[in-house]
Specification:
alpha+beta, 3-stranded antiparallel sheet, 32% strand, globular, single chain, 3 helices
């Protein structure tokens, strides 16, 4: 099973809090940067790779069901159950440079699969398929983040 941590930090855009996601001891943004650099460089914009930030705690931490796959409408992507995990790191505007994923709860695990950059659907995220987390550990990580955020 993969390990997950939700960390509250300050946005790079303005003075508000966002939730960063860490998987197996590494920032999800760093994972994404490694996957995206060849695509962004091919487009002549290498600085776009990994240019994300997390979403505000009030939107994603409990009692919100966001990280359970039930996002507010502005953070839902398409009809296939995707939710936004991260947004463009220099705007803070929903829907700008959205990185989305499917979140599923099955028995005693939570899985994240089908990563997609909504503005660049041709970019492949197969290298990230799929993360699986123990249900209890996942729930505890969300509760810990909530306690630290408020």
């Amino acid at each position: 099973m993969d390990q997950i941590e939700f960390r509250t930090t300050t946005s790079r855009v303005e003075d508000y809090k966002v939730v960063d996601i860490w998987i197996n001891g590494q920032s999800l943004i760093d994972w994404l940067r490694m996957v995206e650099i060849p695509y962004a460089a091919a487009e002549g914009q290498p600085s776009l790779a990994g240019m994300y930030e997390g979403l505000p705690p009030l939107l994603v931490l409990p009692p919100s069901r966001h990280f359970w796959g039930r996002a507010q409408s502005a953070y839902r992507c398409g009809e296939d159950g995707r939710v936004s995990l991260l947004e463009y790191g220099l705007s803070g505007v929903p829907g700008e440079w959205t990185l989305s994923v499917r979140i599923a709860v099955d028995g005693q695990q939570v899985s994240w699969s089908g990563f997609r950059q909504e503005q660049r659907p041709a970019w492949s995220y197969e290298a990230l398929e799929a993360f699986c987390f123990d249900l209890s550990a996942y729930r505890n990580a969300l509760q810990k983040a909530k306690a630290e955020a408020y």
